[in-house]
Specification:
binds flavin-adenine dinucleotide, FAD/NAD(P)-binding domain, seven-stranded mixed beta sheet, about 425 residues, 3 domains, Polyamine Oxidase, Chain A, domain 2
Length: about 425
């Protein structure tokens, strides 16, 4: 990775080395424009980072790349990422029984298993096929231009039964949105549904952090300054916390909405101010186990829990999907918890033992041999995206705030890697055009 902290003159300064800021810098470089990237933390990736702990690869929160994301296909080198895919579908734990739902497009032979399962009614399964046809016939822009409702209302209006909503849609998409009420906008739901069915859910062999690392490697030595938090942006000037000031012809705020609003507060506002959505939170607890708990015929499927208000929302055996996630002879299990009433302070040891106790009911006594590796609580995981803000005129936030000042990131569009990349690219194109 090409990172140091030597001084440089740049026409563009990008604040934030998350996916949006890195994408913007890469496209600017392709257009022959040098951008200096200032990052507050000690590494690139923002909300996508992977820690190496005792031979395990721990993503900071359970996270996947949907290979059908158009922006990811456009920019990333998938084969260099050595993507490892989940099976498309889910294994659902419902009142002491297991139900299986698989994607008939990817596993036609399993279609009868899915049809016979009691995840939903036969009508529900036909409606899934109808929803697949409907979303396939629309472009990403068209999906986002529809008048949204909440995902829950959309599913009801589409005719889905409460049975499939509670057994599949709530646990599965509640895990995608990081909220179980399914109050997230239906156009984001349709986009995600389409992406899940069109491509695969995957992780790079070296962890999700390999995605931002691949982008950072395309930049020049010295182009990213780490541990350099920005304090304020005023006019064409950026002031760092360490007192240094830098000027540029264009400045890009590639930080979250709250940070963007704080940095921009000293500036003279013209087009509006950065939008600050609330965040949905999540907690991810990792365990090492002597063997994978997945049933043999369900390896690589995400496991969902239909029981709301449980410490286990969903579970993935990461080392089944990507053996590089765990050292030889160990399995790595990721358990996501949502709706913890109060995140701070949280006692990770107690949470881990509650999870183990609950999962003993799923997998038996072997769970007592699991070892707690680490827990990540992420209060600022995903910007909430509800129908009111996704409605007319606020579908997308303006990417140009004032003449020389731009913003990008998932809070300016919708909460996903694809949106962070899309807005990063669009800002790069606007700057290229202007400079
Ligand atoms: C647990 C979790 C699970 C997720 N699951 C998925 C998933 O499965 N699929 C999917 O598509 N998306 C998922 N996402 C969302 C996805 O990770 C984000 O949409 C994306 O990473 C946002 O990128 P960004 O560049 O907009 O913002 P960020 O990643 O937040 O980057 C902002 C950067 O700005 C830096 N910064 C902030 N303030 C300053 C400052 N003052 N000075 C300098 N630098 C600053 C930050 O340190 C950070 O590096 C998930 C996110 C989380 C946390």
């Amino acid at each position: 990775m090409s990172i140091d902290s030597s001084d440089t003159e740049s026409p563009v300064i990008i604040v934030g080395a998350g996916i949006a800021g890195l994408t913007c810098a890469v496209y600017l470089k392709q257009a022959g424009i040098h951008a200096l990237v200032l990052e507050a933390s000690d590494g690139v990736g923002g909300r996508i980072r992977t820690d190496q702990v005792d031979g395990f690869q721990l993503d900071r929160g359970f996270q996947i790349l949907l290979t059908a994301y158009p922006e990811a296909q456009r920019l990333l080198n998938y084969s260099a990422l050595n993507l490892q895919s989940f099976r498309s579908g889910a294994l659902i734990h419902d009142q002491n029984q297991w139900l299986t739902l698989v994607n008939p497009l990817q596993e036609p032979t399993a279609v009868f298993q899915t049809l016979a399962s009691s995840v939903g009614t036969i009508g529900d399964k036909l409606r899934i096929a109808e929803l697949m046809r409907r979303t396939q016939g629309s472009s990403t822009d068209e999906l986002f231009q529809q008048k949204p409702s909440t995902t829950r209302s959309f599913l009801r209006e589409f005719g889905f039964s409460d049975q499939i909503i509670e057994r599949f849609f709530r646990p599965f998409f509640g895990g995608v949105f990081l909220e179980d009420a399914l109050s997230t906008s239906s156009n984001f739901f349709e986009f995600c549904f389409h992406m899940f069915f069109k491509g695969e859910a995957a992780v790079p062999a070296n962890g999700m952090g390999a995605i931002p690392a691949q982008l950072a490697e395309r930049l020049l030595p010295g182009q990213i300054w780490l541990n350099r938090p920005v304090e304020q942006v005023n006019g064409n000037t950026v002031r760092l916390v360490d007192g240094k000031t830098l000027t540029a012809k264009a400045i890009v705020l590639a930080v979250d909405g709250a940070q963007a609003a704080a940095l921009y507060s000293g500036s003279d506002r013209e087009n509006g101010k950065p939008f600050q959505p609330a965040f949905n939170q999540t907690t991810c607890t990792y365990f090492s186990a002597p063997k994978s708990p997945s049933p043999v015929n369900a390896k690589k499927l995400l496991m969902l829990n239909t029981q709301a208000h449980s410490v286990v929302h969903h579970l993935a055996v990461m080392s089944d999907v990507a053996p590089t996630y765990a050292p030889e002879g160990h399995s790595l299990i990721s358990v996501s918890t949502q709706n913890l009433p109060n995140l701070a302070p949280i006692d990770h040891t107690t949470l881990a033992s509650q999870i183990q106790q609950e999962l003993s009911g799923w997998f038996g006594d072997e769970v007592q041999h699991w070892k707690h590796v680490r827990t990540y609580t992420i209060p600022d995981a995903l910007p909430a995206y509800n129908p009111e803000q996704a409605g007319e005129n606020v579908l997308r936030q303006p990417l140009q705030l004032i003449e020389h000042l731009y913003q990008c990131g998932d809070h300016t569009a919708y909460p996903s890697i694809n949106a962070a990349m899309q807005t990063g690219r669009e800002v790069a194109e606007m700057i290229t055009h202007r400079l």
